[in-house]
Specification:
Layout (H helix, E strand, L loop, with lengths): L3 E8 L4 E10 L2 E11 L11 H23 L8 E7 L3 H18 L3 E5 H10 L8 E6 L4 E8 L2 E7 L5 H11 L6 H9 L24 H14 L5 H27 L6 E5 L6 H14 L2 E4 L9 H13 L24
Parallel strand pairs: 1-4, 4-5, 6-9, 9-10
Antiparallel strand pairs: 1-2, 2-3, 6-7, 7-8
Helix pairs in contact: 1-2, 3-9, 4-5, 4-6, 5-7, 6-7, 7-8
The chain binds 5'-O-[(R)-(carboxyoxy)(hydroxy)phosphoryl]adenosine and zinc ion.
5'-O-[(R)-(carboxyoxy)(hydroxy)phosphoryl]adenosine binds next to α4 and α5.
């Protein structure tokens, strides 16, 4: 009989509660059931309020576990371990998911597999097709903008990251400046379709720096000043042109860093994931790079770009097989932690 591993996964690092059950048999990982509850309470404030987010996680998490276990047609006896996002993220949010996982691990007498949130995003793209290492992982979300060298399963080296705002965060701030709602990414990119990407020459941040770090505060300020300059005379066409030109600056800056990273190693594939990986312009731009360099590209499916527990389970089953098992007593939420601490090598 084939040996299989069944994992219950929990994600609660920001404002999405995710629960999933996954089963790995040989090389195939199957999602038996998954649910995500995205909190809409933050739309009014234009950003996530951590304590409010935690209350929402607490409200939905237990019924979601019951529902997902039911959908997956599994009982506690079928579960080998509980994979948990332990960090990084908002402490009040993380604490709810971690506590829920610890209670289940204690009650069911199961081990916990601690998973790094970004590791989850990496796996959401990594398992999309044939895995060829080393891979260059491009993880861009509301909280992170990172280039990671993935030498093998569970092996991570950070090559570069943002020194200030993350790309998704800047999309959200520009959306607010343009009077669009939250989350801003999808709204800015929808408006950008109607605009001219060359209408404004916004800065391409860190274009000439020799490292692989990013910085977006200058671009954000340039957009703000442009909107202020136009003032009350702003019309829909200006707003569309600003959105398109801003998005173009982001695409150029990310593409520049990816090309730079590819000159520094013999990469066999690119992985693209995180909330901002849902952005079509950026997906197309990265596909162009992979095509030119003739290397494999795996992009997370749109439903796994935003935070979810499937990706935590995907990393979790591999970590489980590698023996990353902890007792509920030894697991805690951590607001800030490097993915390299989760690396096997
Ligand atoms: O991965 P995620 O759900 O949460 C974090 O871990 O941060 O990413 C959410 C971010 C938000 O900033 C949202 O505006 C952005 O991803 N986003 C997008 C798009 N869809 C979501 N940004 C640009 N274009 C999109 N289509
Ligand atoms: Zn995320």
């Amino acid at each position: 009989m084939k040996k299989s591993t069944t994992i219950l996964a929990i994600e609660s690092s920001c404002d999405d509660t995710g629960i999933a059950v996954l089963r790995k048999e040989g090389d195939s990982v199957e999602v038996l059931a998954s649910l995500v509850t995205s909190q809409d309470i933050h739309a009014a404030t234009g950003g996530v309020i951590p304590e409010e987010a935690a209350k929402e996680h607490l409200r939905v998490i237990s019924p979601m576990v019951t529902a997902v276990m039911g959908d997956a047609r599994v009982g506690k006896e079928d579960i080998d371990a509980i994979a948990l996002t332990v960090g990084p993220g908002l402490m009040p949010s993380l604490a709810i998911g971690v506590q829920a996982g610890k209670v289940l691990a204690y009650a069911w007498d199961k081990p916990i597999v601690p998973v790094h949130h970004i590791e989850g995003h990496v796996y959401s793209a990594l398992l999309m097709g044939k895995q060829e290492f080393p891979a260059l992982a491009v993880i861009i979300s509301g909280g992170h903008t990172m280039l990671i060298k993935v030498d093998n399963y569970l092996s991570y080296t950070i090559l570069g990251q943002t020194r200030d705002d993350a790309v998704g965060e800047v999309f959200d701030k520009v959306a607010r400046m343009l009077g669009l709602g939250y989350p801003g990414g999808p709204k800015v990119s929808a408006l950008a379709i109607k605009g001219n990407p060359n209408a404004y020459d916004f800065p391409r941040p860190m274009e000439h720096s020799h490292d692989l770090d990013f910085s977006y505060s200058g671009l954000k300020t340039a957009v703000l000043y442009q909107i202020r300059d136009i003032g009350d005379a702003i019309i829909e066409e200006d707003r569309a042109n600003i959105a398109a030109s801003f998005q173009q600056a982001i695409c150029d800056s990310v593409a520049g860093k990816i090309k730079h990273a590819l000159t520094q190693g013999e990469y066999k594939s690119i992985l693209f994931a995180g909330g901002v990986a849902a952005n079509t312009a950026l997906r197309d731009r990265i596909a162009e790079i992979a095509d030119n360099k003739r290397i494999l590209l795996h992009v997370a499916p749109r439903e796994l770009c935003g935070d979810n527990a499937v990706m935590i389970g995907q990393a979790g089953v591999y970590a489980y097989e590698a023996g990353r098992l902890e007792s509920w007593k030894d697991v805690d939420a951590v607001a800030r932690i490097s993915i390299e601490k989760f690396s096997l090598h």
